[in-house]
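Tutorial, part two.
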Amino acid sequence: MSNPNSKYASFLARLQEELMTAATQHSVAWRFGNWTARQRLLLVHERLLIDVRRNLQRLNNHVLKEEPQFRKAFGAEFQRWAHQLPNPAKEQLELLKDYTEVFADPKTK
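Running the prediction step on this input gives:
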């Protein structure tokens, strides 16, 4: 079994960067007094979160192809990774969860 810490480490690092970029975009958007500019920046923020969600899904698809032991170890590693994120990135991950929950197909719940 390969080590979950190293096999997807670069992928997780890239996800962290994407979450921090989204956090910056979100913060900048709310500093604008002009509603039109704020709305445009929030659309960019939404696209960034959609990209992060797609990348998380890609990661999940890769991990699902691994052995059960690896998947279990990776799940624990992913939880540690999520807990160590800087607060702005954690907030984006929470937003992503809420966003996904809002747009989830009610039939699949």
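The chain is about 85% helix and 0% strand. In part three we will examine how such features are distributed along the chain.
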